[in-house]
Amino acid sequence: MYKEFLRVRNIFLAFAITVVAIALIVFAFSGHATVNIDTNAHAVHQGSGAAHSTDSVNVYAPGVEISNQDRVPFSVLLALAGFVAAIFGTVLGTCLAAENCGHLDIAWTRPASRVAYALRLMTIDALGILAIFAFTVGVSVALLYVEHWQKYLYPENTTWVFLVSFVAYALAWFGLVAALTASVRAKAGAIAGFSWVIAGALIVLSSLNLPPAIHTLVTLINYLNPLLYGSYSSGPEAARHLFNITPAFAISALFGITILGVGAALAQWRRLEA
Amino acid sequence: MTIQPDALAIEMRSLTKSYGDTIAVNKLSVSIPKGSIFGLLGTNGAGKTTTFKCALGLARPSSGQVLFDGHPLQPQTFESLSYMPERPALYEWMTGAAHIEAARRDFSKFDTSRANELAALFSLNLRKRVGTLSKGQQSALGLTLAFAIHPQMLVLDEPSSGLDPVHQRHVLDLMIDAAAGGATVLFSSHQIGQVERAADHVAILHRGNLVLEGVVEDLKASEKIIEATFDSDAPRFAELDANPNVRRIMRQGRLLRAYIRGTGDGVVDTIRAQSPTSVRVLDQNLEDIFLVAVGEN
Q: In angstroms, rounded to a whole number, what is the distance separating the alpha carbons of residues B36 and A117?
């Protein structure tokens, strides 16, 4: 498992160094920087009173004019972290496929069952995803404080719902990609990348006027589409309405996809041959 | 010779592996005594690697059974069994030191100081990434990891592959040393001289079939070459063709060479009856035995 720890650590460090470098650049040039945060999130912010679907907050550096006085919900940062963590969930989801590329002889001759080995691997990956999520939130908050923009953030009563939801979102992508790539020996990266494209296409298809049979099929497949449950922008939000999905259902579904994905990945991987 | 079951380290019973219509290993039954060095010989595609993979659960046998110390393979078996595949399955992006650390965490009996000694023996730079090492150095790292858990059983697929002659000799010495300490070594090699030097038991696979198995010294003692030269082209011997102890007859101009089982007294008499200019009875080496065994198929 030390191998997987190193793999996750390397990915995390590469990400952290990149983010910190970007943050430093933003900080260094903050006198000229403008950050536009779109808060198209009306469905999930009903009752919060502060944000509206068309609000846009233009935040400038200290001493510079602020064009819009509206504030931004803290959940925007969680959405950002969820999206970033989901991308890394997609990358880390190829963990079993990475073993398939010539390493099974060493992986399967450890004193552990294949399932135990894979579960340990995936646990480390999941912890890595959580670390990336927490790091993204932490850096975002730190940057806002450094730039004195924290006053534009406000907490919501439902922040914890977003927290769980976006963590589950990243884990669902991990589970989905693990299931899609567990039995492949090559091109796992391409499959992982295309999974986002196909997920987006499925969302679009669900809103089209298709023949009933195809529409039903697309609808059913979409229930296994993390993009349906974890998106924060107006498009997929509309899809949420289309599917009449509550936050509780979304969280359950995302964890369900994670568990199903991991289960499917294990079932495939333990039956492979080196 | 019958070996008591409790004296067996590895026992393969009618092990078969098919890929579609192709039979890679066909009803292979082999008993490997504890503390022995067992060489598995065969041409390319003979089924050696498939045999190892099936034995170690890396591939599913179509039928048959493999027992380790009398028990089916369990994950815990690998606490005392090291496997080194033909192509070291190491992670290219990790250093040698990281592989050693990973093995230390996974194997309860892993001996880090032993690993460092072995790395020094093979002149390995453990700070280098595996991807920057030559094939021979990668093999050396694989061997370092395999021997550093002080295994009771070692399964080594072409362990000398890519190594220079000096390090090949180290590998043989390590295998002999491990066996002297009570470990069982099952290995394959294309280098028959190495097998002859290290192995006390040998099995020869050809196209998935076991064509010969036995104690190396017994095989060599029981296999002879009768070499005869004649004034003109070597004659044909109908009696020799029908003799079950004659494995193979080779004619090359005036030279006749018969590969036989046993002392070959009757065969020598048959050949002498045709008045050759000379007749010699030679011991076979393992290479002769291998070539005859494979040629017979």
A: 32
Tokens of A19: 């983010």
Q: Is the pLDDT of residue A153 over 90?
A: no
Contact B106 A1 (CB under 8 A): yes
Nearest to B105 among A2, A106, A116 (CB): A2
**Residue B186 · residue B153 · CB < 8 Å:** yes
Query: Which tokens go with B290?
Result: 């291998």
Q: Which amino acid is at A159?
A: T
Partnered with residue B224 across adjacent β-strands are B260, B283
A107 contacts B106? CB cut-off 8 A:
no
Low-confidence ranges of chain B (pLDDT < 70): 1-3, 5, 296-297
* Type of residue numbered A262: V
Q: Note the pTM of the prediction, 2 decimals.
A: 0.83
Q: What angle do CA B272, B276, B278 make, to 5 degrees?
A: 100
Structure tokens at B116: 């460092």
ipTM summary value: 0.86
Closest partner residue to A110 (CB to CB) among B90, B101, B106 is B106
The pLDDT tens digits for B6-42 are: 789 999 999 999 999 999 999 999 999 999 999 999 9
Kindly list the distances between the CA atom of residue B171 and the CA atoms of A154, A200, A261, B27, B198, in Å, as whole numbers in the listed order: 67, 55, 44, 31, 10
The alpha-carbon gap from B13 to the nearest alpha carbon of chain A, in Å, equals 20
Task: Among B17, B49, B50, B58, pick the best mutation site for testing chain A contact (most A Cβ within 10 A).
Answer: B58
What is the Cβ-side half-sphere exposure of residue A269, based on CA atoms within 13 angstroms? Answer: 32
Question: Which of B292, B226, B219 is closest to B257 using CA atoms?
Answer: B226
For B262: left if phi > 0, alpha if psi spans -120 to 50, otherwise beta; the answer is left
User: Which chain B residues contact residue A107 at CB under 8 A?
Assistant: 89
pLDDT 10s digits, A73-90: 888 899 999 999 999 999
A203 three-state secondary structure: helix
Q: What is the dihedral of CA B66, B67, B71, B76, to 10 degrees?
A: -80
Burial of residue A28 (number of CB atoms within 10 Å: 0-12, 13-18, 19+): exposed
What three-state secondary structure class fits A60? strand
Contact map slice: B 75-104 vs A, CB within 8 A: 75-79, 81-83, 85, 87, 89-91, 93-94, 98, 101-102
| Tally of CB atoms within 10 A around B51 | 30
Return the structure tokens found at A261.
């994905």
Hey, how many other C-beta atoms are within 10 angstroms of the C-beta on A69? Answer: 7
Rounded Cα gap, residues A82 and A164, in angstroms: 10
Number of residues in chain A: 274
Contact indicator for B62, B16 with CB cutoff of 8 Å = yes
Q: At A42, is the pLDDT very low, low, confident or very high (cuts 50, 70, 90)?
A: very low
